[in-house]
Amino acid sequence: MMDERHRELLAGYVDGELSEKEREAFEKELATSAELRAELEEFRKLKEVTAGMKYADLPDEVWENYWSNLYRKTERGLGWILISLGAVILLSFGLFEAFSALYANPDNPLWLKVGVSGAALGAVILLVSFARERIFAYNRERYREVDR
Amino acid sequence: MIADSELVMNIKAGNKKALQALVERHKKAAYRMALGLVGNRDDAYDISQEAFLRVYRSAGTYDQSQPFLPWFYTIVANLSRTWLRKRKRTDHRMVDVDDASYLLISEDNPERSLINKETINALRNALMKLSFEDREIITLQHFRGMSYDEIAELLDIPRGTVMSRLYYARKRLAKHMGRDDG
Could you report the per-residue pLDDT of B133-157, keeping only the tens digit for each? Predict the structure, then answer.
C-alpha cells in the first residue's frame, strides 16, 4: 500500500534525485510491490515522451529586437505618466475655474447650480466607487500571489 | 560578472544599461517559463516583456538579501496566471489552435523515435488541461530541466513538496494523456 512517502520517493527515483541510501531502500520496496513498479513504469514512459520534446524558440530577429522593443515600452510608460499627470492638472484647473464662474455669477439660476453640483457629486461618488473596486481587486490579486 | 541583485539595485537608481544587462541575461528563460505556462508563443513573448517592465517599475520593492530569480519567476507566473484567467473569460478553448506547435519534437534527442504526431498532440492537450500549479511543476522539471533544489528555491517550497507535487502532477498528466489516446 502506497503512502505519501512512497509517492515522494517514486518521483525522486524517476528523476535520479534520491540519495544512495534512499535509493537502495526504495529499490527494496520496489522489489516487493507490484503497485510501485506499475507507477514507476507509467512515470518512466511519461519522462521518455517529454524528454524527446522541446519548446519552440522564436526567430533570431525577434531576440535581436527584444531589447529595443522593451526600451520603447519603458519610454512610453514615462510618456503615459506625464500625459496623465498633465491631464489631471489641466482638468482640475478647468473644473475649478468653471465652478468658480458658475457660482460667482448671480445671474445663473439656482436650478443650474444645484443641477451641476448634483452631477459633479455623482461623478465623484462613481469615481471613488470604481477606485475602491480596483484597489479591492488588486489586494485580492496579491493574496493569490502569496498563496502558492 | 555583476550579480542579478546588484543589477536590480542599479535599475532602481534608474540605470537602463543595468536593465539591458538583466534582460540579455534572462530574456530566453523568461520567455520559456511563460511559454510553458500559457502555451502560446506570442503571449509568452508579451508576458516576458511585461515581466521585465515590472522589474523596471518595481525595482524599489526588491529585497536585495533575497535571490533575484524566485522574485522574477513570481512576476512571470503571476502575469501568466492573470493572462490565462483573461483568456478563459473570452475563449473557453484552453489550447490556442493557432499555436499548436509551441511544443516540438526535439531534433537532438535520442527519444525522438518514440514520439509520433498523435503523442505530441495528446501531450499538448493534456498539459493545457492541467491546473496552473501542476503545469508549473511539470514545466520546471521536465522542460526546464531544473533540479529539485532549484525548483524548491524558485517556488519557495520544501524539497519534499516538490516531490509530492511532481508525483500528483504526473499522475494527472498521464491520466489526461490516456484519455486523449483512447
Answer: 999 999 999 988 899 999 999 999 9
Contacts B31 to A, Cβ<8 Å: 58
β pairing state of A53-55 and B103-105 = antiparallel
User: Domain B108-182: which topology?
Assistant: Arc Repressor Mutant, subunit A (1.10.10)
pLDDT at B128: 87
Please, what's the largest Cα pairwise distance for chain A? 99
In terms of CATH architecture, what is B1-96?
Answer: Orthogonal Bundle (1.10)
What ipTM goes with this model?
A: 0.82
Contact of B180 with chain A, judged by CB distance below 8 Å, is answered with no
Determine contact, residues A66/B27, Cβ cutoff 8 Å: yes
Domains of chain B, residue spans: 1-96, 108-182
Query: Which of A10, A18, A50 would best serve as a mutation to test chain B binding (most B beta carbons within 10 A)?
Result: A50
Q: What is the CA radius of gyration of chain B?
A: 18
Q: What share of chain B is helix, strand, coil (3-state, %, to 5)?
A: 75, 0, 20
pLDDT tens digits for range B30-63: 999 999 999 889 999 999 999 999 999 999 999 9
Distance between CA atoms of B156 and A112, rounded to whole angstroms?
61
Cβ atoms B137, B123 nearer than 8 A: no
- Within a 10 A sphere around the Cβ of A46, how many other Cβ atoms? 20
